[in-house]
Specification:
Blueprint lengths: L1 H9 L8 E5 L2 E5 L11 E4 L2 E4 L1 H26 L1 H4 L1 H8 L3 H29 L1 H25 L2 H29 L5 H30 L2 H34 L4 H10 L13 H31 L4 H29 L2 H21 L10 H25 L5 H29 L6 H24 L1
Antiparallel strand pairs: 1-2, 3-4
Length: about 475
């Protein structure tokens, strides 16, 4: 029994750890099955054994609920300027470049800061960093409101910088919490639910913020309501912190399996040398995820204008067509996560998603000049399915492929490269668009197709390495 306990304490992967159930002189070893996807902990209380699995399950549902509330609040606020773009630009007398800087400027420091934040997570854990990040997001939103009242562009840009740094690090922290809370047999499902809540925040912002402005004719009101929502999100994060600490305490008893791993994690020094522990398959997964988000945001940034000018679709209809991506993602992300968890073979889902992306962008090019405009829905739905297959799978794969003590660092590196791709590819697409005299977006499509082809090639390598 002592040998078994010692082996479990030295094991790095929680998915490989067998749980012990002790009663009297009888010791049995039970694996964590899919149907028992919450960590079962048995605690001795005199001569009786108390099963805390039900308490742990309730707490874990509470953690997922709180994270979804926080994500809705963050993404309600994140695209606040987009929902008020025309009126905001008129009020501040902004150029298009100045407006785009509200999004691009915060992404640049996050290329490095998210990597550092991931390393800090490995060293200090969630509770010490969680509230700092969420406070930065809330403070950035309220400061944006103050900047709108003063009509100060520089203050607004600074507020968006604080908000952007906080929100990007929050994405790393959210996946880190999910990885520490749930077994890998349900990891992708809960990741899909988390991403679904992000899209729900986008939908709320695009539908409610313009209505708030039209009712009040006040830009300040358009920033005030999201600020209140973000404050609610901050409260939800405080509650999540307490629930997370309680779950970790339950998991640590009676043999301190998680505690011993956490202590070894905290003993690590803050060092860039931890990146040397990344295996080849992890690096390939990070590159696939970075290219994936570059393609997704690169297309959605000019999607409505592309549909309008490339296929001669009316602007309102083009926006309606583009919204299909968000609505399919809302329902498809958790469903995709559930299917991946049930079937496994995560490498093949990466391969399939990359293939669908190539086919969807290729179909956009093939339909150039098509008369039946509704045929454009085919590649749009394909693009939506590609996003649903790839996003939750990649976010859950990265901590699974990393060693236990550097999983925060792995998520930070992924987020940093993702920000780099999201900053570079839209910039390249903008230069191509300016270079094309007819503004047909044909060059942009070929650039996206080349990026998708690179992602597909990396997915083949990933299948071999996985």
């Amino acid at each position: 029994a002592e040998d078994g306990i010692r082996d479990a304490q030295e094991s790095r992967g929680l998915g490989d750890v067998y749980k012990r159930q002790v009663h009297g002189d009888i010791i049995s070893f039970c694996p964590s099955f899919l149907t028992k996807n919450y960590f079962s902990t048995m605690m001795e209380d005199g001569d009786t054994v108390v099963d805390t699995r039900k308490d742990s399950k309730t707490l874990e549902y509470g953690i997922s609920t709180c994270l979804c509330i926080v994500n809705i609040a963050i993404y309600f606020c994140r695209d606040n300027p987009q929902a008020l773009q025309k009126d905001l630009m008129d009020a501040f007398d902004m150029s298009s470049t100045q407006y785009n800087q509200l999004y691009s400027f915060p992404s640049i420091p996050c290329i490095v800061l998210t990597v550092i934040f991931g390393m800090l997570l490995d060293k200090y854990g969630v509770p010490k960093l969680n509230l700092i990040v969420t406070f930065m997001i809330a403070a950035g939103q309220w400061l944006s409101l103050y900047a709108v009242q003063l009509r100060s562009y520089n203050l607004l840009l600074f507020a968006r910088l604080i908000f952007g740094i906080g929100s990007e690090n929050s994405a790393v922290l959210t996946q880190y919490v999910l990885e520490r809370t749930y077994d890998k047999s349900v990891m992708t499902l809960f990741t899909g639910l988390s991403l679904m809540s992000c899209r729900l925040g986008n939908i709320f912002n695009s539908n409610f913020t313009p209505r708030i402005y039209s009712m009040t004719q006040s830009l300040a009101a358009g920033f005030l309501v999201p600020g209140i929502v973000m404050t609610i999100g901050f409260v939800a994060m405080v509650i999540m912190n307490k629930l997370f600490e309680k779950v970790q305490e339950i998991k640590a008893n009676p043999y301190s399996l998680v505690k011993s791993q956490t202590q070894s994690s905290k003993a690590n020094r803050f060092s860039w040398k931890s990146l040397r522990q990344f295996r080849a398959s992890l690096w390939v997964a990070i590159l696939i995820g970075s290219i994936h988000y570059s393609i997704y945001f690169g297309y959605t940034n000019f999607g409505s204008n592309f549909l309008e000018e490339f296929y001669y679709i009316e602007y309102k209809t083009a926006n309606d067509y583009l919204s299909i991506i968000y609505y399919v993602a809302f329902f498809g992300l958790p469903l995709s996560g559930l299917i991946v968890d049930k079937l496994g073979n995560r490498q093949w889902f990466c391969f399939t998603g990359s293939l669908i992306c190539c086919l969807s962008i290729g179909t956009f090019i093939f339909l150039d000049g098509v008369v039946q405009k509704y045929l454009v829905l085919v590649p749009l739905i394909g693009f939506s399915l590609y996003y649903c297959l790839t996003s939750p799978n990649i976010w859950s794969l990265i901590p699974m492929l990393a060693e236990y003590e550097v999983r925060g660092s792995a998520l930070g590196v992924f987020s940093g490269l993702k920000n780099l791709g999201q900053a570079l590819l839209p910039l390249i697409l903008g230069y191509i668009q300016d270079y094309e005299k007819d503004h047909s977006y044909r060059g942009d499509l070929y650039c996206l197709l080349a990026s998708a082809g690179l992602m597909f090639l990396l997915s083949i390598i990933f299948v071999i390495l996985y």
